[in-house]
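Help! Submission page says 'invalid entity' but I think these are all valid:
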Amino acid sequence: MNNELLIGLLILCPLVGFIINGVRYNRPNAYLSGGIASTAIGISFVCSILLFIELLNLPVETRQIHVRFFEWITVDTLRISAGFLVDQISAVMILIITGVGLLIHLFSIEYMHHDKGVTKYFSYLNLFVFNMLILVLGDSLLTMFVGWEGVGLCSYLLIGYWFTDDQKAAAGMKAFITNRIGDAAFILGMFVLFFSFGTLDLQELNALAPAVAETSWMGAATLGTLFLFIGATGKSAQIPLYVWLPDAMAGPTPVSALIHAATMVTAGVYMICRLNGLFISAPNTMMIIATIGGLTAVIAASIGITQWDIKKILAYSTVSQLGYMFLAVGVGAFGAGMFHLMTHAFFKALMFLGSGSVIHAMHEEQDIRKMGGLRKYMPITHITFLFGWLAIIGIPPFAGFFSKDEILWMSFHSPLGHPVLWAMGALGAAMTAFYMTRLMCLTFWGKSRVPASVHPHESPWLMTLPLIVLGILSIIGGWVGIPHVIGAVLPGHPENVLGNWLGPVMKAIPGITEGDPETEWLLMGVSVAIATISAIIAYQFYVRKTEMPGKVAKALGPVHTAVYNKYYVDEFYFAGIINPIVEISKNIWYYIDVNFIDKCTYWISDLVKSAGGIVRNLQNGNLQQYAMYVAVGIVVILSYLITRI
Amino acid sequence: MLNTDFLTIIGLDHYLILSSILFSLGMIGVLMRRNVIVMLMSIELMLNAVNITFIAFSKFTANVDGHILVFFVMTIAAAEAAVGLALAVTIFKRFREVNIRFFEHLKG
């Protein structure tokens, strides 16, 4: 098969699925519409695998498939074609998107089959996958931006999917508006880059990036990448624009798994990896990215400790894990960022789907205080969730251990890194272990606090199958990126497959040296130890000595209240930004629009009206008067003509 | 010696003076009278004043064009009278009057 056909099929199948399901949106047959949607994604998944194999067969130097379907925009020097690029980075992404996407589609069939609008739901999901594929495959920033906006739209549609509930509709709008702020910066970034480099093509931008690292803050690369990064903070929920993601949990749970954990929110990380050549030449931007990433990882994790809503905890965990990815790309470890993106997609999608399974069994109950002891009722969900838990807290040999460890090591070892960044990462890891263990304890272990009216049950196979597949991936997913020091002691000396695979397209960090294996082992041991101790403490707190959390909360007093209320960030945004803007707008409306512009137009219309009032007396309907006008007119003209002679 | 030619010899001037007097009478009738039928009659009067001018010029310049035009004017006048009278009848049916002042709904 030729590549154009493959890429065309890959992208268009979800679109066709969207159109089919979109046209028959009011037929609530979950199995049929889910079947159509899953088939579409299934074909795309097969195409992704074929493209991946195609890529494997190419020699390393020319390992990319680049197709241009048509010229899209041609204005002077701006030439944008509908071009799609499959290389090492985007190949990994399309496999994740279509693979995890397929599993989530299957899960959705059972999860959503009571819903009346299920066909609409599946059409939105397909549209999302279509846009996400455009985003990752687009060969220029502009085509990427098309997908970038498209996934934002789908995210809005799916968060506000149950739009009859005002709160959920508001959550959708919050997500959309917050993303718009980031998108505006993204557009500015494109302007800066086009203005300075004269192209928006990703590969050309990477090639044109200044060879010597830019030290000035106002340099083209620094400014452009900073704006792009602000765009990424919106889409990937980083400080200061992360506030929309926890609220986005208003959408159906599989949506949270697909869009708000595995794929869309990683778009920012992906974009930075895509433009790694440009970002690495702007160390100032990199420093900011790493700092923001580290801070987000810590702060979001700390909020996660205090939440009671199972999905909110996972949402803050996602924000925190995305922070890790930004920490990774911020210290120049783009490969590690992509690696964590991949493993996170596996274990976080798994945990969201697991939480969906739990919520389904608990009849739409999301408060973990009303759960507990679910291990007995839902063995498969429990086991798979257990794998996800071990993966996220970074216990070897589960997936998260390798990726998180690589990030922590790089944040310490890279010339762009700093021990403080490592400390932030390690602190985040400790908190992650704590809140995830807390979630496990309160949901699956300990005594049952389930109300008597609810009878939890294991979910049907269509829901457990994706859980099992993702559970397996959460174990083995990390084995593609085994660090060298571990590979050296393991039998068979496995290589860092993913690192080697991504290596050719990732620029090396300037000034990186060979790491000291002993330090690496030490840091690895420290981070695993921290996570284990933290997990054991959490187990003690929430299973053994259940009175302890309350005591600690009381001892911390105002600190706990602040964290529990998410540091009052939403309140601060309302008081500091949103309300002043609303007030200013109101004043502008009142004083400028109503009192000035409107008055001016009224004055003009009054003038015309009064002038008309005078002239209208001439047309009074009296025929004889009209005849008089004619007669007088003739007399006047004739007398003029006569006197002239 | 008083020139009496003007009184004894009928010339073009006399016709033109007669025509202007008739035309002015007709115009005053159209502008002043309220009765639609009288107005129509006044219009006929104006047309005939014009006809007199045509004939007079035709006679004194020995040109037959004026005669021909007069026939056209008479034909058109007949048609116009028919339409005008029909309008007058309609107005009468509507208002039980033929006063033009009742007929001024088209004011601005």
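Support: the input was valid. A stray whitespace character was the problem, and the output above is from the cleaned input. The first strand of chain A starts at residue 65 and ends at 75.
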